[in-house]
Amino acid sequence: MRIGFFDSGIGGMTVLQQALRFLPNEDYIFYADTLHVPYGEKPKEEVREYIFNAVDFMANQGIKALVIACNTATSIAVDDLRKKFDFPILGIEPAVKPAVQSCEGKRKKVLVLATNLTLREEKFQNLVKSIDHHDIVESLPLPGLVEFAENFEFREEKVVPYLKEKLSSFNLKEYGTIVLGCTHFPYFENSIKKIFPEEVDIISGSIGTSKNLKRILETKNQINEGTGDIVFFKSGYKVEDKETLSNYKKLLVMLDRKSPLTTGA
C-alpha cells in the first residue's frame, strides 16, 4: 500500500521530498487540490469540505498512512480526519517551539510566515500561547508566495520585491528565526535569505513530520520495500500529461539538491 500526501497545491512536495529522504523505497500518492488552491484565503467551512472530499478519494485508493502536507488543512481538519479514518494521519504545523527555544537565549524574536487562515486558526493561536512566554513571536501572512509557487514563478527578481514590500514595516535585525508556516514557502528560501541578515535561521516543520511518519510505520511494521514510485493526482484526476509530470519531478529534484528554482521548474 502507498503513503498518501495531500496539499492544496504543489507546496506539499516540499514535505514529500523530505519523506523520500527518510523512506526512499516506499510508494506514494501525491494529491494536489489545484482546483481550489489557495486554501488560506477561503472560508474555513468551504476548505473543510474540500479537504474531506480529497481524503475520501485517497482513502478509496488504498493508503496505509496520510500526511496532510498543508499547514492550513492541518490547522482546521486534522483532528476530525483522525476521528473518521482508521489509518495514521499526520499533520504539519509551524515549527514555533524550536524557534522560540532557539531565540529566547539570543534575545531575538521569531517571525512566523504563513497563510491568513493558518494564522487565524485557534490551533495556531493556542500553540503560540503555550510556548511564547516572553512575547517574542510575531506573524505575517504572505498569500502571494502561494500564488507564485502555483504559477511556477520562482525567479528572485519577481519574489524579492514582493517580500521587501510585505516586510517594509519590520525591523529585520530583531529576528533570530523565521518559521516557514506554509509548505509552499520553502520554495522561496533563497529569496527570503536575501532579505534577512545572514545569521537569521529559517526553519519549517517538514523534517519533523517525515521523521514521525517513519517512526509510526516502523512501530506498525509497515515499512515496505517498494520502488519509490509516486502517482500524482490533481483534484481527483490522475496526472498523466508528460509536461506536468516532468515539472513535478523537476521540483522534487531541485528541492533535493537545494538548487535555486527558476520559472518552468
From TrEMBL:
It holds the Pfam family Asp_Glu_race. It is an enzyme of class 5 (isomerase). One of its GO terms (biological process) is cell wall organization. Pathway: Cell wall biogenesis; peptidoglycan biosynthesis. Coiled coil: none annotated. It catalyses: L-glutamate = D-glutamate. PROSITE patterns: ASP_GLU_RACEMASE_1. The active site is at C70 (proton donor/acceptor), C182 (proton donor/acceptor). PANTHER family: GLUTAMATE RACEMASE (PTHR21198:SF3). Belongs to the aspartate/glutamate racemases family. NCBIfam families: glut_race. This is Glutamate racemase. The gene is murI.
